[in-house]
Every structure is written in structure tokens, then in C-alpha cells.
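Final report, closing paragraph on structural work. Over the funding period we assembled a curated collection of sequence-structure pairs, and we close with a single example.
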Amino acid sequence: MTQSRSRTRDSSSADSRPLVSVVIPCYNQAHFLGEAIESVLSQSYPNFEIIVVDDGSPDDTAEVAARYPEVRYVRQDNQGVSVARNSGLARSGGAYIVFLDADDRLLPEALEVGVRELEAHPECALVFGYSNHMAANGTPLFSYRPHVEGDHYLELLRYNYISPSAVAMYRRDVFDSVGGFDPSLRACQDYDFYLRIARRFPIHGYDRVVVDYRQHDTNRTRNPAIMLSHAITVLRSQRKHIKGNKRYEEAWKTGVRTYQQWDGERLVDEVRTNVRERERGRALRGMLVLLRYYPQGLALLNERRMERHVERRSLTRRLERREEELRTHEQRLRDAESAQELGSTLVKEREKVERLRQRIGKLEQQMQDLNQHSLWKRLKNPDRIRAKLFRKSRRKLGGAKQVAPTEAAPTEAFRGLRSGDTAVGMEQKPRFFVVGEMRSGTTWLMQMLNSHPEILCKGDGSFFGRNESAAEIPVYKAPTPSLYSALVNCEELRTWQSLSWNGWSEWTDAEEDSRNLARLAIDYYLAKGSAASGKRIIGDKSPLHTDHVDEIFDLYPEAKVIHIFRDGRDVAVSLMHHFWSLARDMRGGIYEGLEPEELAKRDTYLEDPEAFLASGNSIFVEERLRQMAARWSRRVSKASREGPELFGSNFLQISYEDLLERPEENIKAVFEFLGARADDRIVHRCIERIEDNSFFLKRGVAGDWRRVFTERDRRVYQEIAGETLLKMGYPLD
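Its predicted structure, as stored:
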């Protein structure tokens, strides 16, 4: 069934420009479809048509499409997204084609930029940009900007970086050459199509975000069995085309490993959960998918093997990062040598290069040891074998109580902790870290978490930040080292490690020792909190850690991280009031770095706040506002970028404004993310406790900055952090 309507916008400038066909396949996404259509209607490019293909949806997709006279609506029986796209393509008339999923949105200049790039690269069959990821409710999460150059077919064999589908714009002719989307694929249709195109034609990527990509529970990417089976199927279809080309074959192997790691390990976790919950049918189906597409994954169903696998993956990532650092410093050393710089600079760079080479050697040795056969590991540990033989002999002797010569009696690892609550015991407990710029709701979220019977979240441990020594905004003058920094920079510890007669540090890397000591020390404090509270999910809230998500991953790759962010201008207002109330001249004050002008502003403001604001005065001195804007922009951008890249699904990002507006929905999502009980009764009770404790205060009002900021404040903040505000979903006015 087809309903024809006006196909292009009525614009005098449209006639001379190529027609772009935007095909929107839709199945049960009527609640998002209106946003997708309106994002096309808002395009700066004038000449386009919109074709909505309803793939047999039982919802009100037809009614939504009928609201827009510009839309051509097509309905078919449910046959899958590939058939829907091919059907829309067959009914389109554009020289250029874009496929927009019904739950995504085009940014206003997406079509204009795509047409410009295709015309600038006439040799290319398709061009593509980047995407902003957003939550189901439209809250920004992070930007996805993979930088890929050179042979795109080679790079696509490694992984699909052209995502989602709407980031790509195609020339119509390419479909005549390579065909349409494969109807046999339920997922990865785009990936298959990109590979078929890139194998025969040039393609081009440009550095511009053009799509908002929505993440929600019904995304097919949430189903690891489907994603694993289809990604591997698509890659296997390329084997006949790459046979004999070593570069392509190596890239292909990398691609298989990548998808087995991304989706295969998620499927392993799902199967283990199904087994625990006695869902035997689902567990068996998952195991059959593993058997066919990731047979090594069956071994990971064993918990100990999975732990070793996670450790191996963590070592691999650390090794890759160190190697990247080494390449950077080697290049700097070459540049310094060619420029004939001063001797001290050359010496420092040579020392850095040498240290990095030593660390890489240590990591490679650790990786080699980890990869050794388990029998070889046992042979390297004769004490373990003797202890096992002793236990067997004791059982044969009737269980008589004896003391093994190589085993000490069990003791508690730390005084004051119960057995099982030691730092070693922490390895079995879920750990998490809450990060977020100061005054962004981290304390409020911490209180919410602590109200849950299974969760303990303590505040401001400042565990991470190996180079942290002083506050970035200089209102607090005393040293502020992190725990990691205190260990790394402890002169006595370094001296002890370097003693020539110290047998314990003779064959160890001081850097690696400091790293391991930091994790043990953090686990010690977490264990103390666990023992005192009796709770099983333990975490820390520290605004400082917003700068150090990469360090959290380095020490705790298995942890979960929650990033809460807030409009930076509201943060600045709240932070200024915080500095005022704790200035050194106030009772209990700690901030001695405030300028006399700032204290004078405080005193005048407190006499009559409304009169102060009505007079047009700013609560900020300009330099302080610049410091706040720069730190907020850097911290929020860094955490939003690094969190998803490093932790993947173990990273959750929420906005303070959403938490204010819909506390039950968002707190439920946080509880589920941490693996805690999240039924409605518990969620309601936790929120009720916080409200009773008066944590919903006026300082949490969203958008309060508009009442406080002067025109100068708006201009200064926008100059420094305007791009980050937009990226995080906040309007500039």
C-alpha cells in the first residue's frame, strides 16, 4: 500500500540541486518516528524527499506518518529492515540516498554536508560522518568519532566504524553495481553493504557529526547472540575475496576476534546468567551460538577462566597504551636530537623512552606468563603441589589434624576486618566509582545509593590521580594529593625499592609495584566499608575522578563507572556559593584563596541577593568564571569520551536535570546498572528517604543560572565551554 504526497520542499533553490531521498524503515517505532521525520524537515538543504516504509508495524506508525504531508508512506508485510530499505529505495527518485532509522535523528546540516562531500569526491560511492549517541529520552551520552584513513576495505574488515546507517550518504549508481541490502541478514546489514562497496569503490569519511544515534532497550545491538552470529557471518562472506592477501587476511582475523570479544563475551555472560536462573532453553540456544561462532567462548563459561581472560584483556590494553606512549616519546626524542636541543631535554626524553621500554618488557613478560599452560603454572609453584598432595594424604589418614610443612595457618589479612572482608575478599564484590564535576549532584546520587540496602557509597576518597598534588582552581592552598599520588611520589618508598640489597624489589618494576599497591590500598578501604556496613556492592564518589576515568580503568578494568553531569553554568553558580560559604573568614572555612573582590561581592550579595542581581552585578570575577568553565568543559568532555571507549557497557552517564525531573526512572536504571534489586517498592522507599532528609533543595533547580548570569558571564562561559554545552545537550541561551 502506498500513499503519495508532496515529495520535495517548495523552494526556488531546490530545482538546481540534486534530489536526496531519505528512506525511513519503521517497525514498532511510532513513538520515535515523529522526531526522525521532523529532523529531515528541519534540514538546511532544500531538495529532498521522505519515504517511510512501515514494515508491518502493529503500532500507530501509519497515523504518525499521516501527520506530515511531505511524507510518502509505504506499508508492507513484516519482512525485516533489509527488505524495507530495498522497498524504499525502489520507490525513491533521488540521485543521493540516506537511510535513517526511525529512532534516530539527522542534525540540521546533515544532508547539506553529505551532498557537499559527495560532490567534492566524485570518485567515491559513499561518504560518511560521525554520530552523537543519546539515551532513549534524548539525553546526550557521547560522540563517536573514529579517525580512519587509507584503505577503508582493510579497516572495515577489522570492525564497522560507519554507524549508525544515517551517517552515510550514497550515490544511487552504487546500488546498480553491488545490489541492495541482503534480506537474509537480521542484523549487520549495513556492515555487509559497506564491505561490498569498499571492496570495489573508494569511500570517504569527513570530520562532522551528522546524526543523533539513540540507545534504548529494543536496539538490536543489545542482543549479543544475534550480533555475534551476524557479524561473523558477514565477515566469513569476505573470505573468498581476501584469500592470498596477507594484509587483508590479518585484518579479517582481527575483525573476527573483535566481534567475538565485543558480542561473544556479552553472550557468555548472558548464558551464565541463564544457567544460574535455570532458564535452560535460553542457555542452550546461547551455547549453540557460541559453539558455531565463538567456540573458545564455551571455555569462558567457567568463572575462573573468564577471570583470567579479563586479566589478559586488561594487560593487552595496558600494553597497547604503553606502546602508543613509547611511539610518541620516541618521536619527540628524534625531534629533539634533530633540533639539537639542550642536553637536559635530551636526557629526560631518553630516560622516559628507556622507562617505557622497561615497562613494556614487564607487561610482555606478564602476558607471556599468563598465556602459559595451567600445568606449567603449577609446575612453577611447587608449594601448591606439595600442599595439594598433603591434603590428599591427610584424607587417606582419616582426616587427622596435622600442619602442612609448607602451609601457614589461615589468618585475617587486616586487623579489624572479618575473614572474607579483606582486600583479597573484595575481588569477589562488585565495585563502582561515581564521577562528576563538583556541584553536579554527586553527593545527592551518593545519598540515593546509600539508601539502598545492598549498596554502600562513601565520598571523596580521591583514590585516583597519580599526578594530583594541588587544586586546579586555586582557592584551596593546602596540598591535595590523591591516594595513588601519595604512593607514587613517596620518596621513602622509592628509596626502599631502590636499595641494592633489597631482595624483594630486585626483579620488580617500581612503577608496577606502585600501581599494585594503589589497588591493594583502595581495596583495603573499600573492604573496611563493606565490613562495617554489611553491604555487598561497594563504591566511592569523588569529583576529582572525573579527570581520571582512564586511571580507574588501568587499576579496575572490571569496575562500573557512573558519570553524572550538570549544566556547567548551574555548576558555576553553585560552586561560587560553595566557595563563599567555606571561605577562610567564615566559621570552619577552608578556602583561603578567594580574592578580596570575591569576598566583597559575597558580603554585598548576602545583604540583599535580589537587589544585588537586579543591579546587574556579577557574582563572579572574570578569571574565576574562566577557571570554572575551563575545568567543567575539560572534565565533562574527557569523562564522556573515555568512559564508553574504555568501559563499554560498564559505563553509565546520566544528567542531573533528568535525575531531578524523573528520579524514580533514573534511580531504577542506576540500581539495575549496579546489579542491585530495583523493584518499584525499593526505588520508591529510597527516594522517600532522601526527600525526608531534605536533599531536594533550591540549589538543585535546573537552569537557575539564567537568573544569576550577566551578559558578560554568558559571553565568557560560552567562549570557553560553548561547544561542550552543545555536545552535552544544553542550549546556549
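Residues 237-301 form one domain. Confidence is low (pLDDT under 50) at residues 1-13, 373-386, 396-424, 694-699. We thank the funder for supporting this effort.
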